[in-house]
Amino acid sequence: MVFSSIPFLYYFLPGVLLIYFLSPRKWKNVVLFLSSLFFYGWGEPRLLALMVFTILLFYLCGLAIEHAPAQGQKKFWLILSAAVGLGLLGIFKYADFFISSFNTVAGLGLPLLKIALPVGISFYTFQSLSYTIDVYRGEVPAQRNLIRFGTYVSLFPQLIAGPIVRYVDVARELDRRTHSWEDAALGLQRFLTGLGKKVILADSFALLIRLFRESSEPSVLFYWMYAAAFTLNIYFDFSGYSDMAIGLGRILGFRFLENFNYPYLSGSITEFWRRWHISLGTWFRDYVYIPLGGSRVSRKRWVFNILVVWMLTGLWHGAAWNFVLWGLFYAVLLLIEKFAERFTVNPPVNPDKKTAAKIITSCLRHCYVLLAVMLGFVLFNAGSLSQAGSDFACMFGFGGLPVVSGETLYYLRSYALLFLLGVIGSTPLVRKSALRILKGTASVFSGILQMLAMAGLLIVCTGYLADGSFSPFLYFRF
């Protein structure tokens, strides 16, 4: 079941919310746990066994870590939870990748396992692993209530595609949380905003990408249109899902941390990754980069740490070499930026030219980030390394294609408004404009305007969904 679907919007969600708010406080986690299992098992009930096993494994290991009398025993249970959890992730997600890579190197023909990838396994495995690590570090006590822990791992608002919610951030809310009409209203607005991002913008860009791949008259310009379309598509798709998850969590009394902060406004790749998929970046920082030594090591070891973290970041996104290279691509850019910062000396600037120089420098940095991100996403979305190479060749005029074609101009005119909306929507301009309008309106009319806007957005999204213009969330495959 997915958020952007008629069954979820008009059957599952209203039913769950009705039962949840009518239930006494002590039963609310039970309602969430059971409804989350139903949500996850809707499309593939067999996967529930893996989910339940994961919950039991990390629940018992957390208790064992806390009650172990010696540090060595605590470490044993931590390693056991990590080995089994990551082992399952490796079998389901990476087994065929490693087998096919080994076959290529060794010239063998070992059969692939062809195991179906459980939806969201990367997300709930990392969440569970962060729990046992934090218990081992003494940052949180082990959760003794199995239903509460099961609710944390399986919570349907963020189960499938994040954000990665760490136990330490919601431990108190699992035990006792408050609800209010204000939180419900704010949560609903956030959910519908995310739904609009996904259904109206992301899915429209997905259609253009599909048309590009089916084009009979490709051109250099069309390849750049594709790169820009996918860059906006993945942002509105993933940030839209995060908005919906955060909004649903707010309705249910949870305060999930933000996962996106207008990343396309960044002036460096370092800043970009502080704004994009924030929960994943902080997870790798706290559980991989810092334990490896972070930056407080020798220069060679620091470079090694960066390469390891970003190779794993790429591999986390998918079991293919293009994802590994995508992660290493960012590692190289980040290293270049870090070394440039160390050796750059800012020359004195004429006070009269300071503003102009800053504007020019800022624009150049922004263009560099956008170009790097677009090229990175072309590699990210390629079905293979050969396709990535072909895409890059065509983008830079080495594919024997015309610069422009009649079909390209047709789609450029047809989608020009969508690109404009996408660019504006990826900045805070829409939000700030809406707040300014509401601030200048009387409180009563402000509330009415918000309700009408949200109702209109829901109607439009429902029309899109009823028309069948739907594509799955991109991060479902991770």
Distance between the termini: 16 Å
The number of distinct β-strands equals 0
Give unreliable regions as ranges: none
Q: How many structural units, i.e. domains?
A: 2
Helix/strand structural class: mainly alpha
* Rg over alpha carbons: 24 Å
Shape, per Cα inertia axes:
globular
Describe the structure.
The structure is a single chain. With 478 residues, the chain is an all-alpha fold. Helix content is 72%, strand content 0%. It is built from 18 helices and no strands. The chain has helices at 6-22, 28-41, 47-67, 71-106, 121-137, 146-154, 167-175, 181-213, 220-251, 269-275, 278-289, 299-317, 321-343, 354-381, 385-395, 406-425, 429-439, 443-466. Helix 8 runs parallel beside helix 18 (443-466) and helix 13 packs antiparallel against helix 14. The model has no long low-confidence stretch (mean pLDDT 89).
